[in-house]
Specification:
434 Repressor (Amino-terminal Domain); mainly alpha
């Protein structure tokens, strides 16, 4: 799966909840610069990190993957 698409989906979920990268990274217990690189598609999140981000967004990790899969299929 394309890391850029996953990053875009995470960013979209974050912005829907009006969270800054600073707040989301704190809730997910990851470094803000790491979250930034994930959102930019420069890094792929590990399964563990994906679960941390999803939990902080109050969604299932599968919701992120499903949305990314749909976006990728649309291209």
């Amino acid at each position: 799966m394309n890391p850029k698409i996953i990053g875009d989906v995470i960013k979209s979920f974050r912005e829907e909840r009006n969270l800054s990268q600073e707040v989301l990274s704190g809730l997910a217990n990851i470094d803000r610069s790491h979250l930034s690189k994930i959102e930019l598609g420069l890094r792929s999140p590990t399964v563990s990190t994906l679960y941390k981000i999803a939990y902080a967004l109050n969604i299932k990790a599968s919701a992120i993957l499903d949305a990314a899969e749909k976006e990728e299929a649309a291209k």
